Amino acid sequence: MAEHVVGTEGLCLSRPRIGSKTFAELFDGRSQLLVYHFMFGYGTRVDEQNPGCTGRSFVADDFKYNFRAAFTEEQQRSGAHYNFRHTDDPGEQAPGLSAFALEDRVVHHTYSTYGRGVEQLMGTSAYLDLAPHGRQEEGLEPPAAWWHRHDEYETTEEQATR
Amino acid sequence: MTQHRIGTQEEWQAERDELLKEEKELTRRNDKLAEKRRALPWVAVERDHKFETADGMKSLADLFDGRSQLMIYHFMFGPPYEAGCTVCSSITDTLAPQVPHLKARDTTLMLASRAPLEKLLAYRERMGWGIEWASTVDDDFNRELGFLHSEEELKSFLEGEIPPAVTQMAERSGTDVKGYVTEGPGLSAYALSDGTVYRTYVTTARGLEPAMAYYGLLDRTPRGRHEDEPEHWLRRHDEYETSASS
Fold this sequence. Notes:
The complex is a heterodimer of chains A (about 160) and B (about 250).
Chain A lengths: L4 E3 L12 E3 L9 E5 L26 H4 L6 H6 L1 E3 L2 E3 L8 E8 L2 E9 L1 H4 L3 H6 L27 H5 L2
Antiparallel strand pairs in A: 1-2, 3-6, 4-5, 6-7
Chain B lengths: L8 H31 L3 E2 L5 E4 L2 E4 H4 L5 E6 L11 H10 L3 H5 L3 E7 L3 H11 L5 E4 L3 H4 L7 H9 L4 H9 L4 H6 L3 E8 L2 E8 L9 H6 L28
Parallel strand pairs in B: 4-5, 5-6
Antiparallel strand pairs in B: 1-8, 2-3, 2-6, 4-7, 7-8
């Protein structure tokens, strides 16, 4: 497996620069590593929506491309493999989770999941499935249109004074 | 040398594709199951349960807080407990951050326990959770759902061999085994329609696993949950030794 060098520098502007780590070092002394391919690309702007974090959120090199959670400009034009099948319009990035084992100083890729495979890990959807009216996403385009960052929802007071 | 099978990328992909079929099947079965769950009959809650909250005494209808759906996690924190149950605390670590997202879907998610409110709120502060927590005023609210056990019901369990994990969990909550297992964990869901509260769904035991995010993640790691030790590994999030001290 290629030696991925993963940049952790400038994760957030407010944090000190902590340098680069090898893939094996990300295990941080443990035998297993789970990486969530957080959709936060190189060119992501620092503005009111993304306060304090730089464009280089987590990953350098070709890590996300290798694990099929980010797509080159060429792939965005002509389609790419995502969620184990061809997609015409993959976009720049897509959610995914990958698992790795470190044994005998060798990193092994053991598992990856995408799309609704990640949904299984999203608590909110699982709980709404237990509620009487469910997710209530009918008529929403896309169905996830209601999602916001947890600090972006209007409070009840704001709604009441509108 | 690792004991596990090592394959090429192509071999992995071929087996992953087969597994993907089963995962998709499970996702769709889960969608169907969620539909069936919502098709269950609703049961009107006729008893006038009261809850002590940080904003004063409330009825079950009040707990909806203006929304049409209510979900209550029955957190094991009985009057003799000194701290909330360790497992329930790990569940609340998953639940609490969901509160704002669920509000956006017209759903209130909160905790209810039998311990006095001051104890609950002090513990909530220790854990750093932003989720509402009510103290149940009448025991029937939990008893009706099987989340509060009588001495009679516990007799055979207490006379048998107590699993070490239960003894540990009781100790970690500052109570004895009997005090600990008097409480039971569970999740109940309610709808409010035309001023009437209906109970729509109740689950417990492994039905609570969607609220144990760490299991869903561990199930996707190479070693899985690896819970072979007799002592349960779980701790409150502020009780784990840090890397620096271990």
